[in-house]
Amino acid sequence: MITIDLSFWAELISVLILMVVLNSILFKPIRRMLEEREAKMAELQAEAEKYERNAEQLVANYDKKLAEARAEGKSELEKLKGEAREEERQLLEAATKEAETKKSELMAELTGQIEAARKELQAQSDAFAVEVAQKLLGRAV
């Protein structure tokens, strides 16, 4: 059985003194260190979140600039394709005109040669006809 006497009060006072001493020497510094650690962790967490937001913003800016560059490249490509088509059309047109001019020149030259050959043959045929007639008739015509 428990008896409350002087030793009980001495033990109680001794435990209370021990709690006060342990609190000031051990528990308060540990709590302070835990609070400092928690504050430091919160600070590091906030800093990490700030860096993460910055990284996300940089990635978004990069993606935006990349999309703009792709769009600009695509429009430049289309512009160059259009210019190339126009140049091709002009070259074909020029080549066609040149071919037509050469064809006309050659046709005119051929027509001239045909007319010259026709006149020459006409002159020769008249002389040949007279000669054939003279041989057939046996006399001069």
Describe this structure as you would to a colleague:
The chain contains one helix and no strands. With 141 residues, it is mainly α.
N-to-C order of helices and strands: H
Helix content: over 70%
Q: Overall mean pLDDT score?
A: 92
Distance between the termini: 182 Å
For the secondary structure, the number of strands is 0
Which runs of at least 5 residues are low in confidence (pLDDT < 50)? none
Provide the structure class.
mainly alpha
- Global morphology: rod-shaped
Kindly provide the radius of gyration, computed on alpha-carbon positions and rounded to a whole number of angstroms: 58 Å
Number of helical segments? 1
Largest sheet: none
As an assembly, this protein is single chain
Task: Name the beta content range.
Answer: under 5%
Question: How do the strands and helices of this protein lay out in sequence?
Answer:
Layout: H1 6-137
Describe the structure in brief.
The protein is mainly α and 141 residues long. The chain has one helix spanning 6-137.
Question: What keyword list fits this structure?
Answer:
about 140 residues, about 0% strand, mainly alpha
